[in-house]
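Tokens in:
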């Protein structure tokens, strides 16, 4: 209607063939009386892949000269800004940060409350891999470090899971520390002790269960229980309920190829819903706002991959990803 026109070509004119009808995408059909709050598409970034510097099949080996320069720069930044931020204005301070004398996988060492800890940096333009965490954790345990800090700009889901289970898997507890992308700019930005360039990230706690449907079709539902943050200084676990999370997104058929597709989006901790209601000046279902600001997803069918991914945005803007298999 309005956007469907005949596609006349030279061949159709010379041979007297009926022209093909096409839809002009720049002339959509207008529907009045409906207010669109968001467009029908999203833009998502992809996590950079781990880097094999030597070409020997070992990721993040750190043998390349440019990676060595990156480690030196990160150590200097960590000396200038040694505080790791946790929720509730809690700070963990790294003291006497230095390069280890002899190492295979570790990038640096330091002291936390007088105890020696190990540090490993992920690649400058890539994600922390599971192999990097395993090798660094094994060396940290063998050398008697009490904790392993894994610094990175991004981390693979399997690597993140290994960090959370490092104490049982490799014999030393580990913590993932998110570095701000500003550090990639090098000396273009000032780094002081007051700069919050590092922050300790938590792990989303979710529950996946079967959903009750009227027709008895096999569907599932995801509930965001909250966000767990581990304090490496006191070994305590802090829990933030899901209702205090700024935003969380659900991919109902995660393919584990670092491509996260937003199928459902929720924004629990925000006061924008009342403003949006007043701006629309229309009739609506109250259950809609409760759903968008809630912690329980809408029922969905299992996809081909039979696994889901939940991405949580914490109060610092960090993206936290957890993957779960469907029962």
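Residues out:
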């Amino acid at each position: 209607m309005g956007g469907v026109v005949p596609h006349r070509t030279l061949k159709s004119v010379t041979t007297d063939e009926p022209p093909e009808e096409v839809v002009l995408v720049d002339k959509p059909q207008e529907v009045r009386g409906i207010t669109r709050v968001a467009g029908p598409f999203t833009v998502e970034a992809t996590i950079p892949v781990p880097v094999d510097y030597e070409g020997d099949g070992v990721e993040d080996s750190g043998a390349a000269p440019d990676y060595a320069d990156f480690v030196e720069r990160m150590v200097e930044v960590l000396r200038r800004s040694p505080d790791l931020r946790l929720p509730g204005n809690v700070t963990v301070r790294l003291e006497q940060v230095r390069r280890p004398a002899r190492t295979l996988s570790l990038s640096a060492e330091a002291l936390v409350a007088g105890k020696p800890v190990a540090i490993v940096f992920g690649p400058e333009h890539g994600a922390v891999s599971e192999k990097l965490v395993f090798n660094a954790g094994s060396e940290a345990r063998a050398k008697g470090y009490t904790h392993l800090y894994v610094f990175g700009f991004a981390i693979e889901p399997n690597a993140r899971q290994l960090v959370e289970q490092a104490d049982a898997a490799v014999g030393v507890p580990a913590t993932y520390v998110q570095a701000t992308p500003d550090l990639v700019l090098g000396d273009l930005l000032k780094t002081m002790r007051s700069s919050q360039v590092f922050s300790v990230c938590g792990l989303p706690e979710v529950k996946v269960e079967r959903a009750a449907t009227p027709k008895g079709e096999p569907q599932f539902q995801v509930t965001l229980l909250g966000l767990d943050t581990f304090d490496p200084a006191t070994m305590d676990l802090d829990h933030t309920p899901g209702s205090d999370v700024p935003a969380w997104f659900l991919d109902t058929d995660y393919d584990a190829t670092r491509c996260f597709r937003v199928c459902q989006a929720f924004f629990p901790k925000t006061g924008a819903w009342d403003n949006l209601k007043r701006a629309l000046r229309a009739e609506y279902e109250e259950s809609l706002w409760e759903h968008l600001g809630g912690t329980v997803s809408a029922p969905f069918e299992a996809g081909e991959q039979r696994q889901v991914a939940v991405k949580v945005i914490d109060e610092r803007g960090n993206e936290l990803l957890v993957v779960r298999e469907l029962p």
